[in-house]
Amino acid sequence: MDPFPKEGEGAAAGEPSRGAAPSSGVVVQVREKKGPLRAAIPYMPFPVAVICLFLNTFVPGLGTFVSAFTVLCGARTDLPDRHMCCVFWLNIAAALIQILTAIVMVGWIMSIFWGMDMVILATERRCRAADGDLH
After folding, report:
1. What is the pLDDT of residues 46-69, one digit of tens each?
2. Which pTM was predicted?
3. What whole-number distance in Å separates Cα of residue 101 and Cα of residue 110?
4. Backbone angles phi, psi at 43, to 5 degrees
């Protein structure tokens, strides 16, 4: 057995070849797939979203419960094909899941992440409104 590889064995052993061109792929669009509960989070004004995050942090599910009522007040969601009442009940279901599973910490963590999503959506809404004002 020879301790040094022979000529041509290096590439076969898994070493990258030096003359190969890197793959040139282009990403056209990346779209996040959301489940029905996640898509039911309403786009709220930024201060309301921050209040809901605060409520969700200290009382799991309370901010989500409050956000359900913003749907009835006209807040948009990523579920345009569903009726307003259906989206309202999806948010109530998410709040109940958070409250009932808060005992084992899962609901509390879910509640905090839900509140963070509300703030992120409110920030996106604010940025889109600012871009619309510039043009």
Report:
1. 999 999 999 999 999 999 999 999
2. 0.70
3. 9
4. -80, 105
